[in-house]
Write a structure and sequence with these properties.
The complex is a heterodimer of chains A (323) and B (194). Chain A has 323 residues and is of the alpha/beta class. Chain A contains 11 helices and 9 strands. In chain B, helix 1 packs across helix 2. The chains are: A alpha/beta (323), B alpha/beta (194).
Chain lengths: 323, 194
């Protein structure tokens, strides 16, 4: 693994390796000394062109707990606000001799574009996609998978894949990079995925995705082993996707009434930040089956695992397909 | 048992000899510690874990009390991570806290001492043991760091280019220690020899 741009690039074996190592990394979180020397001397730059709390801080902690030097560059307060282009910014940062660039950008495909520029310029730095537009957010999908695997292992300790499980992904699928990455990774792990959204928030090309779709949440809920609620991304909407927030909640919110329709033991996930009262009720967010806080806790362990997989070995600038 | 050694490799310990060495080391650990109080036995993956479990079982039989046994993976503490493709990380399972315990580290082969150095660093991040002891099935010499074992199953003089392979039933389906001559190009996966 040289870069992490898309959850779709991960094989089942690679996914399992990341999740297994994240279990070991999670133990470090519980120790008095939360520090491993594995990435000593490595430098990781978090380059965030969009606001983020949990992703940026968990990437920062992950790098630091592995002893890498981590610096954060956000668009606000950097030369980006003076009009510097993405290309100039990343090449400037990379030419300081960094080992990895963690990028969040509002444009879909930006991290992939950065890899292209690096290759053209002979720069060896690894690139990690921390969310690009409405495209992908692969580490979110990995931490969701990690949290779900732990949940399912409580009743089935030997479960390694999600074969035979149904996961409903509910809400604003069109604008959700979390949904795209989760569809890819959940399918790799063997789960059946059902996307549930109003027609206006279902992506136009969804017919070619390896998923089932529905517009009726009440019909899907009793079938689901896990429900992933997506955030309604009002900042990406220009209006007209649904009449009123109230109507969205009535049709697609995980309300108190809908909790009763869930299977016993079904998991509730939300990538955060939550719009409480819109896509998820307070009762659902705080219900016994809610894994939302576990998802946040898993973020650091999973990102430690990913950073080690990418940066933990010798530098192989030419060996692109190496695992 | 001699038929398990090939032309290039020589059998140096068979199953009986390994069993006797483990039994003797178990008694030595208990004698040095004046009993089982405070002992925590930690094996270094992969084969050190199997040996640790054997030692702990033997000590439990002698003392009549369960001895906490677990594993301590040292991959993330190695000093040669950047010389190899990304290494797989094994499992660490601590059966008890290491603060004020007498930790017995167990590995199959003591060679350069670098694995033990890494294990001491890993232990230091987990707590502050009262003492750390080292038990190895085979000490083959050629130390690169000032490390020595407290309990040794067999001292085995080797040339530095020879390979010592420990195979244990729990991992490999057979109990034997073999030594392979020459710059190692043996087809077998050897036990960790560092």
């Amino acid at each position: 693994m040289r870069h992490l741009l898309s959850a779709a690039d991960l094989s089942l074996a690679e996914t399992t390796r990341v999740l297994d190592l994240a279990e070991e990394m999670a133990q470090v979180q519980a120790r008095p000394v939360k520090k491993l020397p594995a990435l000593r001397g490595r430098t990781v730059v978090n380059l965030f062109f969009e606001d983020s709390t949990r992703t940026r801080s968990s990437f920062e902690l992950a790098g630091k707990w592995l002893s890498a030097d981590v610096i954060n560059v956000s668009a606000k307060g950097s030369s980006v606000s003076k009009g510097e282009s993405l290309r100039d910014t990343v090449l400037t940062v990379a030419s300081m001799g960094v080992d990895a660039l963690v990028i969040r950008h509002h444009a879909s495909g930006a991290p992939g574009q950065v890899v292209g520029w690096f290759e053209a310029s002979g720069i060896d730095a690894h690139v990690l996609n921390a969310g690009d537009g409405t495209h992908e957010h692969p580490t979110q999908a990995l931490l969701d998978a990690f949290t779900l695997r732990r949940h399912f292992r409580r009743t089935e300790p030997d479960r390694d894949t999600f074969d035979g499980l149904v996961v409903a992904v509910v809400g604003d699928v069109t604008h959700s990079r979390v949904a795209r990455s989760n569809v890819a990774l959940l399918r790799t792990l063997g789960a059946e995925v059902v996307l549930v959204a109003p027609p206006t928030l279902m992506p136009s090309g969804v017919g070619s995705w390896p998923v089932a779709t529905s517009t009726d949440l009440d019909e899907v809920l009793p079938e689901a082993d896990a429900v992933m609620m997506l955030r309604v991304q009002r900042e990406r909407m220009s209006g007209g996707y649904f009449p009123t927030p109230r109507e969205y909640t009535v049709g697609y919110g995980l309300t108190r009434d809908r909790l009763a329709r869930l299977r016993p033991g079904a998991a509730i996930c939300h990538p955060g930040p939550m719009n409480r009262g819109l896509e998820i009720s307070a009762d659902a967010a705080d219900a016994a089956g809610s894994l939302i806080l576990e998802q946040v806790a898993a973020g650091v362990a999973v990102r430690m695992s990913v950073l080690y997989q990418l940066l933990g070995g010798e530098d192989l600038p030419t060996n692109r397909g190496d695992h | 048992m001699a038929e398990t050694g090939t032309a290039a490799s020589r059998l140096v310990m068979d199953a009986d000899q390994i069993a006797r060495a483990c039994a003797r080391m178990a008694h030595q650990v208990l004698e040095a510690n004046r009993g089982a109080a405070g002992l925590v036995v930690l094996g270094i993956p992969t084969r050190g874990v199997a040996l640790a479990e054997r030692l702990a079982a033997a000590m439990t039989e002698v003392e009549g009390v369960p001895i906490p046994v677990g594993s301590l993976d040292i991959t993330l503490y190695r000093d040669d991570l950047r010389r190899h493709p990304t290494r797989a990380v094994g499992r660490s399972r601590l059966p008890a806290g290491v603060d004020d315990a007498v930790v017995v580290l167990v590995d199959d082969v003591l060679f350069s001492g670098r694995t033990v150095r890494a294990a001491l660093d890993a232990l230091g991040d987990l707590g502050r043991p009262r003492a750390v002891r080292l038990a190895v099935l085979v000490d083959r010499g050629h130390r690169e760091l000032p490390v020595r074992a407290d309990h040794v199953g067999k001292n085995l003089p080797t040339r530095s280019d020879e390979r010592v392979s420990v195979r244990l039933a729990e991992v490999d389906g057979v109990n034997e220690v073999t030594i392979t001559a020459g710059p190692g190009e043996s087809g077998d996966e050897p036990g960790r020899a560092s």
